[in-house]
């Protein structure tokens, strides 16, 4: 009994509250997304795969479960070897070979002459050293000569004879070097030179000396160009078309008991049966990679989008979009539309990253969408087969273009156009990457282009189809929803136009004023404009009690007490909220209705009440709106525009100076009254807003051009001639 009581205490009193807490639910939600994404990624690594090594004995038959065309690497390699062997070495002419040979010969005999002219007593020894140095040169023909005997001969030779020997040596060198000589041809060239020297009419000692220096001077005049040769070999190898063979379904690739060959492993790899990494290590790597990407996402949200990070609903929305894109990517990559693996791998171009990018841009934020695009592109690289980098780059470019396109949507038809732009971006990227990779196979490029074009269209279709459901499920107001609400045919706006036309036009003017400065202060222009359209819909209930709708009628407030007038005026906020909720307006629009007056004071009626109050019982709080104060820049802009428009409209002389002064007074009054203290508008923002308001209002209330006196008289004559004495010149 005690144990059961303790168990109930632990479960219901301790554990249950923890499980029900928002923190626990958040952690469980994130963990779920982590597990799902990890499983999707890991599913790309087939557990039925094998990991064989060359010369390993197969323990079972390995059978192909698909029909596919594979490359016979063995035959292909043999053909490539044959093509490589037929490539001749590439040489280029050395223009300096023969001049350098002449110089060497001339220097050799010049050294002899110098030695002979010297007074040194050891001439013979110096000449012998000169001959030995020539014989020690690294040549293919070994010359064995009696250098002492040859030195004695030179010592006794006249200078004129040495000059003739010099010329004879040059003759031999020039004769044999008159044709192309490679390094490999040198032994044959030396033999030719020796034969030529033997025919010279010189003493044997002289011919030996000529032979020594000729062999020493002769050199290749054709230099081996390794780079050009390697390029020729590469071209020859690449020109060999891969030998293909068809593997049938059920065909045995490796038989039990056979030793596995390199060729069999190659076939298994092409069929996706062979894996190169350990299965557990692959799982660990997948988990670590997903963990890293999760950390990057959450840290990005935490640092730059704290409002989304702290909102479980928006975090869940982000996770669902990512999972949807990854699932679809996984699905398209496993589709087999051909028996050629290289064609099937191109299905990676169908990864609908652009759809996810556009959804993030529409539902959350443009800049966030760019970061998410990068993350999704990484996932595409992991999920696809073949050249994963190309698919990742294409996905990133397409997603980026998608974000850019939907960020400037003005109407719902622009969403379809965004798909066409994504398709065009995909096509250009695929062609560019194909050229960079050197892949000029026409069939491959055309198929890749087709996939890229289909990707753009399907991304737009997927985004348009999923968008309404995500909006509804997560209560997110997108740009598309705002565009729909801005339609004048919306039920509330039509009622506002028909039942309170003055308020309708006032709302339009407020929208124009607020939108003009929204982007400059970091607010959402579209949201500001739509919020302004609906901020006064509560006036539909009693339009005649608001001055903008009083056209030629008595002011009903003159007949009732100020307190009652205040109650009627302030109640349009509450009534507007009720009407907005009945019409299922988004919460962001309801915020404009409920906050656009904040806790402002109804000064006119408060002043009247003070004049009539003789007992001092009037409380200022009873003449204020219930609030709350504006919580966002957007609502604050509408509050300021609302007050400014009404005040400027009431000016008897709306000159630029009067307008600027009125705008300044209104903004300062809201600031002093504390109405802007809960939004994040800065003093710099207020200055920008003031300038924008003044510029627009001065354009609306510009000074009319007076007609010159001559023109005025002419118009008067024309009116008299037509009998129209009541018309005045148009202003």
What does this structure look like?
- The structure is a single chain.
- With 731 residues, the chain is an all-alpha fold.
- The chain has 5 domains: 62-80 and 242-270, no CATH class; 91-224, no CATH class; 279-473, Arp2/3 complex 21 kDa subunit ARPC3 (Orthogonal Bundle); 482-700, Orthogonal Bundle (Hypothetical protein af1432); 702-731, no CATH class.
- Helices cover 65% and strands 3% of the residues.
- The chain is built from 31 helices and 6 strands.
- The strands form 3 sheets. It has a two-stranded antiparallel ribbon with strand order 1-6.
- The radius of gyration is 46 Å and the shape is elongated.
- Residues 723-731 have low confidence and may be disordered.
Quick structural overview:
The chain has 731 residues and is mainly alpha-helical. The chain is 65% helix and 3% strand.
């Amino acid at each position: 009994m005690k144990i059961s009581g303790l168990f109930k205490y632990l479960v219901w009193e301790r554990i249950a509250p923890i499980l029900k807490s928002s923190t626990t639910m958040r952690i469980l939600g994130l963990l779920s997304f982590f597990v799902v994404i990890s499983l999707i990624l890991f599913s790309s690594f087939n557990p039925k795969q094998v990991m064989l090594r060359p010369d390993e004995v197969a323990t079972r038959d390995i059978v192909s479960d698909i029909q596919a065309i594979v490359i016979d690497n063995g035959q292909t390699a043999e053909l490539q070897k044959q093509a490589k062997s037929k490539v001749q070495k590439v040489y280029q002419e050395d223009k300096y070979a023969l001049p350098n040979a002449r110089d060497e010969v001339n220097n050799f005999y010049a050294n002899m002459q110098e030695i002979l002219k010297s007074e040194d007593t050891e001439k013979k020894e110096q000449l012998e050293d000169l001959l030995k140095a020539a014989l020690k040169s690294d040549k293919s023909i070994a010359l064995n000569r009696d250098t002492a005997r040859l030195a004695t001969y030179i010592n006794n030779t006249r200078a004129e004879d040495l000059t003739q020997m010099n010329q004879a040596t040059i003759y031999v060198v020039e004769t044999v070097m008159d044709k192309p000589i490679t390094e490999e041809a040198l032994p044959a060239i030396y033999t030719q030179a020796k034969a030529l020297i033997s025919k010279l009419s010189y003493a044997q000692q002289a011919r030996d000396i000529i032979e020594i220096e000729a062999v020493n001077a002769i050199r290749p005049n054709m230099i081996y160009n390794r780079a050009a040769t390697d390029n020729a070999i590469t071209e020859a190898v690449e020109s060999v078309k891969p030998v293909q063979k068809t593997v049938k379904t059920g065909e045995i690739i490796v038989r039990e008991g056979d030793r596995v060959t390199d060729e069999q492993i190659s076939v298994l790899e092409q069929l996706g049966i062979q894996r190169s990494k350990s299965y557990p290590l692959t799982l660990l790597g997948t988990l670590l990679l997903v963990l890293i990407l999760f950390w990057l996402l959450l840290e990005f949200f935490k640092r730059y989008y704290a409002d989304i990070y702290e909102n479980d609903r928006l975090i869940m929305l982000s996770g669902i979009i990512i999972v949807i894109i990854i699932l679809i990517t996984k699905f398209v990559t496993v589709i087999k539309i051909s028996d050629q693996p290289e064609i099937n791998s191109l299905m990676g171009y169908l990864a609908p990253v652009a759809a996810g990018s556009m959804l993030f841009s529409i539902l959350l934020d443009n800049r966030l969408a760019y970061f998410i695009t990068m993350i999704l592109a990484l996932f595409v690289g992991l999920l696809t087969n073949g050249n994963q980098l190309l698919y990742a780059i294409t996905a990133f470019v397409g997603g980026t273009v998608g974000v850019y396109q939907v960020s400037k949507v003005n109407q719902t038809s622009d969403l379809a156009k965004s798909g066409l732009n994504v398709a065009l971006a995909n096509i250009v990227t695929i062609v560019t990457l194909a050229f960079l990779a050197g892949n000029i196979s026409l069939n491959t490029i055309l198929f890749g282009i087709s996939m890229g074009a289909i990707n753009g269209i399907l991304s737009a279709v997927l985004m348009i189809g999923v968008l309404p459901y995500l909006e509804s499920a997560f209560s997110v107001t997108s740009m598309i929803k705002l565009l729909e609400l801005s339609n004048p045919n919306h039920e509330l706006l039509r009622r506002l136009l028909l039942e309170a036309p003055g308020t309708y036009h006032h709302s339009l003017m407020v929208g124009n004023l607020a939108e003009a400065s929204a982007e400059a202060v970091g607010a959402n222009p579209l949201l500001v404009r739509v919020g302004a359209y609906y901020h006064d819909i509560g006036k539909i209930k009693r339009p005649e009690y608001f001055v903008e709708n009083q056209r030629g009628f008595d002011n009903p407030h003159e007949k009732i007490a100020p307190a009652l007038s205040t109650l009627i005026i302030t109640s349009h906020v509450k009534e507007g909220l009720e009407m907005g909720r009945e019409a299922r307006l988004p919460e962001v629009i309801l915020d404009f209705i409920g906050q656009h007056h904040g806790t402002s004071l109804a000064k006119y009626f408060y002043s009247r009440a003070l004049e009539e109050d003789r007992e001092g019982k009037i409380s200022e709080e009873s003449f204020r709106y219930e609030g709350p104060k504006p919580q966002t820049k957007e609502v604050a802009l509408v509050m300021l525009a609302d007050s400014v428009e009404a005040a400027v409209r009431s000016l008897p002389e709306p000159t630029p100076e009067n307008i600027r002064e009125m705008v300044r007074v209104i903004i300062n009054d809201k600031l002093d009254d504390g109405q802007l203290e809960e939004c994040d508008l800065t003093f710099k923002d207020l200055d920008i807003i003031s300038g924008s308001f003044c510029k627009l209002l001065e354009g609306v209330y510009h000074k009319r051009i007076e007609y010159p006196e001559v023109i005025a008289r002419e118009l008067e004559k024309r009116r008299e001639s037509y009998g129209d004495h009541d018309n005045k010149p148009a202003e």
